[in-house]
Amino acid sequence: MHEPPAKRVVKIPKRGFICQECGEIGWPRKIVPGSFLLEVFLYFLFVIPGLIYTVYRSSHRQEVCPVCRARMLPLGSAGGHQVVQRFFQSSKVEFR
Q: What is the pLDDT of residue 28?
C-alpha cells in the first residue's frame, strides 16, 4: 500500500511577525504617510502649517510588511498562530 507523504516540517521563530496577506515572516517596516518634500515646503511657507503636518505624519506612522505593505501580526499571538496555520496548513509547524 502507499503511505501518505510525510508532512514537511517548518521551523518558525517564536519572535517576529507574520504578514496577514502574503505570509512573509520577519520584521515589519516603518512607513510614514505623506511627503517629506511637502513638509519642507510647508515649513518654508509658514512654521505653523509645517508643524501641524509634522505632527500628523508622526502620529500616523505604521509598521507594515516589507513585501506587500499589509498589516503584520506578532508570531506569538493567537492571531499570528492562526495566520501561520493558514499559510502552512500542509506542513507540520514547530515554533523554536
A: 92
Tens of pLDDT, residues 41-81? 999 988 898 999 999 999 998 889 999 999 999 988 888 88
Domain boundaries, the chain: 17-95
pTM of the model: 0.67
Strand order across the 25-26 sheet: 25-26, 17-19, 72-74
| CA–centroid distance for 53 within its chain | 25
Q: What is the 3-state secondary structure (H, E, C) of 6-46?
A: CCEEEEECCCCEEECCCCCEECCEEECCCCHHHHHHHHHHC
Q: How far apart are CA 69 and CA 27, in angstroms?
A: 12
